[in-house]
Design goal:
The chain has 490 residues and is an alpha+beta fold. The chain is built from 7 helices and 30 strands. The longest helix has 62 residues. About 1% of the residues have low confidence.
């Protein structure tokens, strides 16, 4: 029914004092006059005279020696890992330790061998804990390190029974297992060294790590083949024969992986020299190409200038000489006609010089577009106003259409293209604009077969370069019914 008290003098059992009635079998019944379970496994007395009663069903009960009241420790109200308590022991410093099916646990909350089924536990004279488990005999040293006693030291079994342990005279301990019992003195057992004993050296475990990384089990055999060059810190550690890394040996050394031959400084210097030679060669070739391109452009420009300037200047010279020679005999109408021709020639020369100025500014990098929203109709009308016979140009532009462009650059392009179109087609030129696309059509001869561009004057060269700066594209092709069609996509 519970826990009975035995009177040594009267040599009889007293009436039950701490009951565990069947109507209160649950450890949740927190009455300080009942024990948590009648299934007791071990009973000891602590240093204050209190009774410590272990159960296999509901943890531990501590019965106060003065009041008789019961304090319970089970999984519902403490950190005990398991309610199945197999054994108890008292250490020299007065600590009560419990062996459970999930490790060792003390009433103060300390724990070791977590998750391990501990069948019996004893404390030696120095406070070390010894635990018989189903995985051999384990111990917890005074510094908190844990170790396992190998069977190779003469122990008959790796499976120990429940509560089959005791103290012997002289500080020795005894544990019983499935293959018999063994007795030993803890100090003598832990003093065994592996030095010079080949069978015992096989019990030592080894591990290593590089640059403070994760530990790798086994002896270090070398760095990986694909490791990068540099400096590496190798730490090697060996356990004692009980598997304790804390009591083993630790060594540290520095390893250096040299750079591959092709990454050493003589080769790097050679690479730098080769790279310098390649860059120098590329720059020289680029400069030469740019120089050749510039010379070709200048030769073309001088050819255009000499052609475009020579004709109007020669014409002006001839016309002015004829007017001077025939001035006395000229009628007012003939004189007016001659002066009008001189004015047109002067206007053409002025346009040529203006284009030449724009080209020179562009070559010096001083010509940059200033983009604004501009009324396209106003720009076209201004360009037509500067062209001789501009009245033959028909314009089809939606009212209020604006484009984002540089006013002066686009005005120059329109003037040059319309002027060339009127010269090629005096009978009529059409300009049409829709959105950002402008189309100029004439009835002239158009492009000859194999030609990609029409005309070679300075005005067309300037027009192409200005359109490139505006980010516009110009295309030329012959119309379906003849003539040339020029499209500008802004």
């Amino acid at each position: 029914m519970g826990l009975n008290e035995w009177d040594r003098k009267a040599r009889r059992s007293l009436p039950p004092r701490w009951l565990s009635p069947f109507r209160y079998p649950s450890p949740q019944v927190d009455s300080n006059i009942y024990v948590s379970s009648r299934l007791g496994s071990r009973l000891i007395e602590d240093e204050r005279g209190n009774l410590v009663y272990a159960t296999t069903q509901a943890g531990i009960n501590v019965i106060d020696s003065k009041t008789g009241l019961v304090t319970k420790y089970f999984k519902g109200n403490s950190s005990i890992p398991d309610d199945y308590v197999t054994d108890l022991c008292l250490t020299p410093d007065g600590a009560v330790w419990a062996a459970t099916r999930s490790g060792l646990w003390s009433l103060s909350g300390n724990h070791f061998l977590d998750g391990m089924l501990v069948q019996s536990v004893e404390a030696d004279e120095k406070g070390r804990l010894w635990a018989g488990t189903e995985d051999g005999l384990w111990f917890v040293d005074t510094d908190g390190s844990t170790g396992r006693v190998p069977k190779e030291l003469g122990f008959p079994s790796d499976i120990y029974g429940e509560r089959v342990s005791c103290h012997l005279s002289g500080g020795s301990l005894a544990f019983g297992g499935s293959s018999g019992a063994v007795s030993f003195h803890p100090d003598s057992l832990l003093s065994i060294k592996s030095a010079g004993n080949l069978p015992l050296e096989s019990l030592i475990h080894h591990r290593y790590r590089i640059n403070g990384g994760d530990w790798t089990d086994g002896r270090f055999t070398g760095l990986p083949e694909n490791i990068r060059s540099g400096r590496y810190v190798l730490q090697e550690q060996s356990s004692d024969i009980f598997g304790r890394w804390e009591r083993g040996e630790t060594s540290e050394k520095t390893l250096r992986v040299p750079r591959p031959l092709w990454l050493r400084w003589p080769f790097l210097l050679l690479y730098a020299l080769l790279l310098t030679a390649v860059v120098w060669t590329v720059l020289r070739l680029r400069e030469r190409r740019l120089l050749v391109k510039e010379l070709q452009m200048r030769n073309r420009l001088f050819s255009i200038i000499s052609h475009d300037l020579r004709n109007p200047i020669s014409g002006n010279k001839l016309l002015s000489r004829q007017l001077l020679e025939r001035l006395p005999g000229l009628s007012p109408e003939q004189l007016r006609d001659g002066l009008e021709k001189l004015a047109v020639s002067a206007q053409n020369t002025s346009s040529l010089l203006e284009n030449l100025l724009l080209w020179s500014l562009d070559q010096e990098g001083m010509l940059e577009p200033v983009m604004r929203e501009e009324n396209l109709t106003a720009l076209v009308e201004e360009a037509i106003g500067t062209i001789q016979n501009g009245e033959v140009i028909s314009v089809d532009i939606p009212s209020g259409l604006t484009v984002k462009t540089d006013r002066n650059m686009l005005l120059t392009c329109l003037r040059n293209l319309l002027d060339n179109a009127v010269k090629a087609s005096p009978e009529g030129v059409a300009l049409k604009a829709r959105g950002k696309k402008i189309t100029i059509s004439d009835n002239g001869p158009g492009l000859k077969e194999g030609d990609a561009h029409w005309g070679h004057g300075l005005g067309l060269v300037i027009t192409q370069e200005l359109l490139d700066k505006l980010g516009a594209e110009m295309s030329m092709n012959n119309g379906a019914e003849g003539g040339l069609q020029i499209s500008i996509d802004l």
